[in-house]
Amino acid sequence: MDIKIKNILNQFKILRSLKARIFIIVFLIGIIPSVIMRYGILNSYEDRAVSLRTSDVQRQLNIIANHLIAYNYLTDTSSEVISAELEQLSNLYDGRVIIINSNLKVIKDTYGIGEGKTVISEEVVKCMKSGTGGSSFNDEYDYIEFTTPILETALMAETSDGEKPKGEDKPRDIVRGVMLTSVSTDSIVVTMDILSRRALIMEIMMLLIIFAIALVLAKILTKPFERVTKAISEVKEGFTDEPVSVPDYLETEHIVDAFNQLLTRMKALDTSRQEFVSNVSHELKTPITSVKVLADSLLAQEDVPAELYREFMVDIAEEIDREDKIINDLLSMVKMDRKVASMNISVVDINALTEIILKRLRPIARKRDIEVVFESNRAVTAEVDEVKMTLILTNLVENAIKYNREQGGVKVVLDADHQFFTVDIIDTGIGIPEDSLEHIYERFYRVDKSHSREIGGTGLGLAITRSAVLLHRGSIKVSSAEGEGTTFTVKIPLSYVVL
Ligand code: ADP
């Protein structure tokens, strides 16, 4: 929408209401035609009345003009018949008739003021020459003016040498004078005034009716939207969490559908949040409970031997380490949730990074006689967040070592094409049962709780890994055979795409 219109709408806040707009539109659509109709009807009445009056008067003038010739009025103005006719005409139409002879002299003026004067008005001279009359309506002073030629029909006069021109014996009109008539249109104006007043009254009545219709329509048409607001408010206030339904319009149905989807999503999020909180509390509570039990049992005994103290203290320290690990994992996960804004992208040598990570993890592998091999098919540099990339590789290789057998093997294979680089982490470990495969990325999910706990798992590692991979707009896949081993494949774009 035009910025100007928007500014105006902002100034008149009420115009931003759909109800107000519907009201205005219905009102205008109702009232404009009635105004146009009033003017149209009045104008066409005026045209019609004036043209009727014109032809009426014209006809009578033509009759009088003929009588003027018949009674030879132009040379002798004493004819009573003509005087009566002129009188009647001027009385009937409240007009004035001036008769002018061929010398442009006024021989009769029904007003009796112009007789004997010479008229040299353009219309009169023109009419005298051409023999054709005319009329014009003056709507400012409300009168119609006529110029009527007084014509005498005669055979063509003989030429001066006494011969008749050949073929010229047809009758011919000779202009003997002109009648200049003006008739008032006051009566038409009076009728117009009456009509106009009636039309105005009708228009005001219509205005009131249309006003009422516009008000009612605006209210009825916007009602479903009010219902949508009310239904959503009810959900918001917590009176109900049933899906909202306002099927009155397709539009309200769309709004409500979108809202219901949002509601479902919010419910799912709420459930997962509750589950998460209860899981976190449980996970954090477990080591604390163990510490408490260990400490209590030490306190309950008197004269505890130093070795026992030591043994219990080692256990307590282990539990504290575990608590620390859970808290660290939770913090990593919260960081992942902060989305794209937290990405710290730089060009990283993936070969070197993998080497460093494997070097760090090999001592743990060596404890269980597990061999960790790195196989690089090409040198790879990519735009990644180094900290998150380290987290991805560390978690996967750590799992490959943790869930392995004695003297097992772990192979990390790095490869790339022109768009992506892939890292395969292949182990010869215990594998993941097929029905667990779809759950391993869930927070706190562990295939074998006691085993995982024994080897220090929190169930958060793969959730964090997957979030980190997705933040790089990459993908992670797993294939596994129980008792044989697992392969995780991470595929990440070489260049980071900002969306
Ligand atoms: P944890 O901290 O328990 O290792 P993860 O989220 O990293 O949590 O892994 C979830 C579960 O998936 C683990 O508890 C384990 O049961 C299983 N898992 C992960 N990686 C492997 C693997 N390489 N081999 C077998 N099982 C695995």
Characteristics of this structure?
499 residues; alpha+beta; five-stranded mixed sheet; 11 helices; rod-shaped; binds adenosine-5'-diphosphate
Question: Helices, strands, pairings?
Answer:
Layout lengths: L2 H9 L6 H53 L9 H14 L2 E6 L4 E4 L12 H9 L3 E5 L4 E13 L15 E14 L1 H52 L12 H51 L5 H32 L7 E5 H18 L3 E6 L4 E5 H17 L6 E8 L3 E8 L21 H6 L6 H11 L3 E7 L3 E9 L6
Parallel strand pairs: 7-9
Antiparallel strand pairs: 1-2, 1-5, 3-4, 4-5, 6-8, 9-10, 10-12, 11-12
Helix pairs in contact: 2-3, 2-5, 5-6, 6-7, 7-11, 8-9, 9-11
This protein binds adenosine-5'-diphosphate.
Q: What does this entry look like structurally?
A:
- The chain has 499 residues and is of the alpha+beta class.
- Helix content is 55%, strand content 18%.
- It is built from eleven helices and twelve strands.
- The chain has helices at residues 3-11, 18-70, 80-93, 122-130, 186-237, 250-300, 306-337, 350-367, 386-402, 449-454, 461-471, and strands spanning 96-101, 106-109, 134-138, 143-155, 171-184, 345-349, 371-376, 381-385, 409-416, 420-427, 475-481, 485-493.
- It has a five-stranded antiparallel sheet, with helices on both faces.
- A hairpin with a 4-residue loop joins strand 3 and strand 4.
- Helix 6 runs antiparallel to helix 7.
- The model is unreliable at 158-162 (pLDDT under 50).
- Adenosine-5'-diphosphate (ADP) binds at residues 395, 399-400, 403, 427, 429-432, 440, 445-448, 452, 457-463, 486.
- Adenosine-5'-diphosphate binds at residues 395, 399-400, 403, 427, 429-432, 440, 445-448, 452, 457-463, 486.
